[in-house]
Amino acid sequence: MATYKPKNILITGAAGFIASHVANRLVRTYPDYKIVVLDKLDYCSNLKNLNPSKSSPNFKFVKGDIASDDLTHVDNSFGNSFEFTKNNIYGTHVLLEACKVTGQQIRRFIHVSTDEVYGETDEDASVGNHEASQLLPTNPYSATKAGAEMLVMAYGRSYGLPVITTRGNNVYGPNQFPEKLIPKFMLLAMNGKPLPIHGDGSNVRSYLYCEDVAEAFEVVLHKGEVNHVYNIGTTRERRVIDVANDISKLFGTDPDSTIQFVENRPFNDQRYFLDDQKLKKLGWSERTTWEEGLRKTMEWYTENPDWWGDVTGALLPHPRMLMMPGDRLCDNCDDEHKDVADGNQTFTVVTPSGDNKTPFKFLIYGKTGWLGGLLGKLCEKQGIAYEYGKGRLEDRASVMADVRSVKPTHVFNAAGVTGRPNVDWCESHKTETIRANVAGTLTLADVCRENGLLMMNFATGCIFEYDAAHPEGSGIGFKEEDKPNFTGSFYSKTKAMVEELLREYDNVCTLRVRMPISSDLNNPRNFITKISRYNKVVNIPNSMTILDELLPISIEMAKRNLRGVWNFTNPGVVSHNEILEMYKSYIEPGFKWSNFTLEEQAKVIVAARSNNEMDGAKLSKEFPEMLSIKDSLIKYVFEPNKRT
After folding, report:
1. Which sequence spans correspond to the domains of the chain?
2. What percent of the chain is predicted at pLDDT more than 90?
3. What is the pTM of this model?
4. Cys-Cys with 255: which of 108, 164, 248, 334 at CB 3.0–4.6 Å?
5. Looking at 115, 211, 499, 615, which residue is catalytic?
6. Any catalytic annotation for residue 141?
7. 323: burial class by Cβ within 10 Å (0-12, 13-18, 19+)?
8. Superfamily assignment of 361-517+542-574+611-637 in CATH?
9. Which of the residues 39, 116, 339, 465 is marked catalytic?
10. Choosing from 141, 155, 230, 583, which is the catalytic residue?
11. Band of pLDDT at residue 425, cut at 50, 70 and 90
């Protein structure tokens, strides 16, 4: 099956709940895609939903209404057809016509519909509605969605517009406006108020966690076939009363005393049930369990109780004709079955323009460390707002408090244990090393992921040693995908372990630093400072990191939202003797030293030391202006400190 790769994507309604998760996912996962969000910012939209993307260079927000023919440059080519299209249908019609008049520029038009267009599912049905099932909407809302689908289909057949339609189950998770069942119950439970259930609570719904749905749209975008429909659903069903029970228990309250039955509402269909096999054949599957999704959702609403401002009206058992922020009338906003979409959500490939110039703000961990201190100075120099984290990385609550307080666009982790005066310390302090290097780093990565933040993680390349496949002096370096082979020190073991685990987090950029060097020759952590104070040194070529050149690159990598593992060293290798020769030439002409073998070195150290060459092709391709290790040493270290 061919995979489609877009370049420019317009997402309408993406300041709302579902589409904001889709937009944030695409922005962070595909930095080479240009994403433009168009939203009129009505009551259930919030620009804060797009905070994870706002500082990304491949993201742009435009405030506007798809029903505005001025915005979409649509003239009167419709004739009188607008007389027959209102609300959902009208906006979809405008957007379709705008895409039609662009000719062949549109490569995909992904229309987001709802499972409600199939109508009510029989209570005893064991097979869900499949994509070819008859559309039998039972309420005005679902009828307008079905009407919009017919327009989409018509434009596909009549004008060759490359359309794809999705029909989804209910969606829940962080950022959702509390007119919907789950966030409404969450906020009410947080405030010790009753949970109102319409009727007897026997209505059955299927719920998908928002990140799973965002992944489904990612799959449809890349693998979906034009002119096809895809159900986004789950076969796991729950009664409304079961949802209320689970949320009550999650907050430690007695369901019998917190659940309140109220008068049923109109259009409250008993059941919607989907067949999800077609999308699964494209490689998608539900990942988040109900228990995990509810917990994550509870944590988010507990941490962000004021995200939507005053929502008292939306929390009523029967809110009717409420004037919500944005001056949009919300009639019967508490419908459980309308958790499937926030207005008209459509994904179309178009050509965006302009750049997003929203300022960055960094949260940096490792204030008292060498790298953390240098990062702060670089931020000041570049005019980037930053704050240092106050919490201990292994303390999840304190890290979450930092994120809430600072509201960063990116997080830098320069904290961790290397040992003082060197890694030998870790051999006798193993639990402390694990706590900082493994537990703390994973906690920070997990908190960042839940908050949609990219974590720049300063790791180490001291997890490899020369071997038969990478012999010393061969020029064959270890690549980013290679498995660590050095176990000589407990420090390196913990760093290798956490790096492997971090590969499961798509929001982490791992930078393998080696034998860091800076122009500050008085810093005891500086590799040159260290070896210039030893009586004897080994003489082995190694890859190394010139911080004066590469730390600014780490900031640029954050701005570009780069992810994955990177060998964060200058190209090439340099030996101990070569560095000390430079030191002698530029700094201290009378400097003398002697060498000893690895066997002799082993007698005076506790833990073995890593020696290797890292392959720098990946970083050099991204930053071709980066200097080789020897040229960088001269430019950034020895020339500025030259005394002879």
Report:
1. 65-303, 361-517+542-574+611-637
2. 62
3. 0.52
4. 248
5. 115
6. yes
7. exposed
8. NAD(P)-binding Rossmann-like Domain (3.40.50.720)
9. 116
10. 141
11. confident
